[in-house]
Amino acid sequence: MTEFNWTEKRVLVTGATGLIGSWLVKDLLNKGAKVVCLIRDIDYQTEFYRSKDYLKTTIVNGALEDMDTIERAVNEYEIELIFHLGAQTIVGAAQREPLQTFESNIRGTYHILEASRKHSELVKGVIVASSDKAYGIAKELPYNEDHRLEGTHPYDVSKSCADLISQSYYHSYGLPVSISRCGNVYGGGDLNWSRIVPGTIRSLLDDQRPVLRSDGNHIRDYIYVKDVVAAYSLQAASLLMNKTAGESFNFSNESRTTVIEIVNEIISIMGKENIKPEILNMKLKEIPEQSLSAKKAHKILDWHPKFDLRKGLSETVNWYYNYFEKSE
Q1: Coil, helix or strand for 72?
Q2: Phi, psi of 36 (to 5 degrees)
Q3: Are strands 211-212 and 177-182 parallel, antiparallel or unpaired?
Q4: How many C-beta neighbours within 10 Å does residue 231 have?
Q5: What is the pLDDT of residues 110-161, one digit of tens each?
Q6: Closest C-alpha among 101, 20, 22 to residue 57
Q7: Closest CA to 122 of 87, 94, 82
Q8: What is the mean predicted confidence (pLDDT) over 208-215?
Q9: Cα separation values, 327 from 28, 270, 294, 316, 320, Å
Q10: What is residue 138's predicted lDDT score, i.e. its pLDDT?
Q11: Collapsing DSSP states into helix, strand and coil, what is residue 81?
């Protein structure tokens, strides 16, 4: 793909303090974009604040559920491109409080889309972060972009709905929107300790046994955050060059990994082979097996991941070593 010039592009990032958002903001700033971030809660432990990248951005305080805030951000800062990453992303939290998740993930998404439609003279592209969870339980794997969206549990359903609403805005109003669907994203800066990668690393740093709620055999796609940021950058550039409006893309290493395999890989990297994981073998309301085909992204966007699991996890472990040293 032709190199895209990001200099002075006015970009709004929702979810800027999250795992992907923090690294995406860093990448956009390095490319010379003018970045506006929608922030609900200030968390100084996140990479967005620890790196001091927030000092180089414009911050709009507010929630996705507040339409007036979204419109003000788009209009006053004359936004050209939106990366909509903001969401309630924890499956367990969604199970406990589905309404909160639906409000954030569904209402928040149509607020972004509606503000973009109303200000189409400004907004030339919207990237909506969906998820492999939007596909639900499929009879055949890997998922490709033509699979039906059939989420079952609250988090999965919220992603299916947001995904479909995004497609509706393209088909009904011609809104230049493109949808990304990733597997399990990991990397430095994820402070949701209930997730398997940061939770395992923190436990091992404390010489504690990592805890697996499941039997360890759930299959997932794990993808390093820097590969995801590179994918989003290519996806957005293609969208702004009027090539991929209305398209959805899977981003994946196309490597099926069980939970126990990723835990054992982290144990190996950290040299903690004497510590064995504790397997609770709980029955979880989660999809047991997921994997994605990224052939479309390879072909259309010329995107190819640069990090295998070991390389990505090694960088991730180093980030947490540094994080906890600085926190003491």
Answers
A1: helix
A2: -110, 135
A3: unpaired
A4: 23
A5: 999 999 999 999 999 999 999 999 999 988 899 999 999 999 999 999 999 9
A6: 22
A7: 82
A8: 91
A9: 27, 19, 38, 17, 10
A10: 85
A11: strand
Higher pLDDT, 302 or 328: 302
Q: Residue 130 and residue 203: Cα distance in Å, rounded?
A: 30
Residues 8-67 have pLDDT tens digits of 999 999 999 999 999 999 999 999 999 999 999 999 999 999 999 999 999 999 999 999
pLDDT at 283: 72
pLDDT given at position 31: 97
Q: Residue 74: CA atoms inside 13 Å, Cβ hemisphere, count? A: 29
Residue 155 appears among annotated catalytic residues: yes
Q: Which amino acid, 91?
A: V
3-state secondary structure labels for all residues of 64-86: CCCHHHHHHHHHHCCCCEEEECC
Cα 156 off chain centre by: 14
β-bridge pairing 34-39 and 58-61? parallel
Q: How confident is the model at residue 328 (pLDDT cuts 50, 70, 90)?
A: very low
Longest alpha-carbon distance in the chain: 60
Cα angle 255, 140, 92; round to 5? 70
Backbone CA torsion sign across 226, 218, 106, 235: positive
Distance CA(328)–CA(324), nearest Å, equals 6
Domains and CATH numbers, the chain: 10-186+223-254+291-307 (3.40.50.720)
Which of the residues 155, 170, 232, 320 is marked catalytic?
155
DSSP-assigned beta bridge partners for residue 84 = 14, 128
The pair of structure tokens assigned to 266 is 């982290």
Tell me the three-class secondary structure of 223-237, residue by residue. EEHHHHHHHHHHHHH
